[in-house]
Amino acid sequence: MNLFIINIMFSGIKKISKLLPLGVFLLLTTLVIAQPTLPDEEIDVIKDFEASLEESKKINVTPELPELDTTSRQLTYALPSRSIQMQYLPPRIRPLAIKRDKVDPSYNGFIKLGYGTPNRPYAELAYNNTKDPKYDIGGHLKYHTANRESLENQRFREINGDLNGSYYFDQGFAVSGGLGYDFDEVHFYGYDNDTRSELREDVQQQFKTFAANAKFFNGVKTQGDIDYHAQFDLYSMNDNFASKEFGFDFEIGATKWFNELHPLTVILDADFTVFNDGENETLNNFGIRPSYTFHGDIFKAKLGFNLTSNEDNFRVFPDVEVSANIVGNQLAAYLGADGGLYKNSFKNLTDYNPFLVSSINPVNTDYYKFFGGVKGNLRVVDYQIQASYKIANDLALFVNNPLDTIRFDLLTDTVNIFNIEGTLEANPRKDLRVMLTLSQNFFNTQNEEAAWHLPNLQFNAGAYYTTLREKLTVSGELFIENGVPFRTIGTRVEDSLGGLFDVNLGGNYKVTNRIALFLNLNNVLNNKRERWKGYETYGFNILGGVTAKF
Length: 550
Known about the structure:
The protein is mainly β and about 550 residues long. It has a domain at about 380-550: Maltoporin, Chain A (Beta Barrel), CATH 2.40.170.20. The chain has helices at about 1-35, 345-350; strands spanning about 110-115, 120-130, 135-150, 155-170, 175-185, 205-220, 225-240, 245-260, 260-275, 280-295, 300-310, 315-320, 320-325, 330-345, 365-380, 380-400, 410-430, 430-445, 455-465, 470-480, 485, 495, 500-510, 515-520, 530, 535, 540-550. The chain has a 22-stranded antiparallel barrel. A hairpin with an 8-residue loop joins strand 21 (about 485) and strand 22 (about 495).
């Protein structure tokens, strides 16, 4: 039943779908026929249409910034604290291997034994302990003698030794001191061996000197950056002819450092000397030396003076110097002036000329010196050239005694000295070192005809070469000096002694780190010039031996 009804419905839908297009066509035809008919006559346009807008009114608006809110607001944040636990392994930093430089072993002392010609034994011992930071102690002992039998009484002997030490306290200060003894024996051999002969004890001269010193100073940097010291030096000296001399020098000073660069220094000094050759002769000097030094980036300036007093005579000497780096370390120039008192004591004079008479009047040489020069470093060469002009009052000169020509008297004169000097040190190779020094003096004496027994020209040169893996060091040295002028008192005749041309050769060979052999060939050209009138030098001589470190 139901299937029948469904078939009838599908059949009706099919018939309606066939009639639907015909119905739509009839409907459209009816709508077209129903439209009215448009007129076909002409139309005249009387006026063109113009569209226009009325003029608008402009509204001006000026923008303004809103007012600043200057009220301060305090915001409070509540952040919960939370600890984060992190676990990690620490990194392992492994050092790089660095090749260590070879460090030469250090030793506390050495002993040196040798022998040579003419009849020349030599012995030297030294020890110094500096390994303890709180103290150091050391000592030195030397024995040296020679005897040239071909020239009567041309011999000498020297024995000297000293002990010294320092102690550094926990409180920051330190003390040091020393004791010493010198024994120097010479002989007045400056006579003609063909016409004169002397017993050794009659021409023997011995200088025996005992010395002591002590110093109190700051061992570490102080809180106020002030260095201080107080010290004394004394000696007692006598010779074979009953002459004695005692000297005592006391000095106190302090240095205040500004910015660790600029020192302000004040030094007070009192120097006492008593000479006795039957009567006492005193020579006492007092001085104060203030100075201030400023170190800039490329220049340094020192300003100071030296105020001295002797027998109520006050003198003021300059102590000034200005230096500047012109081309880095390659070229620097300096200019300055200084001066002071130099004491011609019996000890100082006999150190320079041991053939002096034993009766003198100690006297000061006061001098003013003006100097300038250049210095620097040119890769492997260090150099310095200086010119100076010195005005020296009571400069010590030496002339033969007219009654005993083998001894010398002391003369003094005002002498103006113009000096040119230069030094050069070069290391062209690691194993080679070369040194040169030159000094030329031009003397202008006020009363004397010449500066008796003072050299004008001095030239020294040396070369030192190390080879065989630093085991062997060889050296060559050259010493040149002009002949000094001399005269005998009473004649006023000027003459000149022969010049010096001295060549030395030397060698040192390390057998082990502790043991070494040495050999020195001195004056290989056998130059026998006279440095002092009547006293020729030893000529060619040899010294060789062994050195042991411990």
